[in-house]
Request: fold
Amino acid sequence: MLYGTENPISLDELRFKKFSVKEASSTCHLEVISLPPTSAAVKFHSLRVYFQTKVWIGDNSLNPLNYGCKLSRERCFL
Reply:
């Protein structure tokens, strides 16, 4: 069970479903942080975690730009 659902649906569908339920029952603004992440956010988070883990164990052969890192002013940011 992930994010309180037992039915296997995509994260994007679950996010929309949770948003709809919370919006319908809310009397004030919705806290976006209470929603599950989008499938794109999960994909890039997983890539960055994999890359960082490989760096920690000493494998520096991976190109960080292929794992969600950005190059800015000659520096690489996760």
About this structure: Residues 37-78 form one domain. The beta strands are 70-72, 75-77.
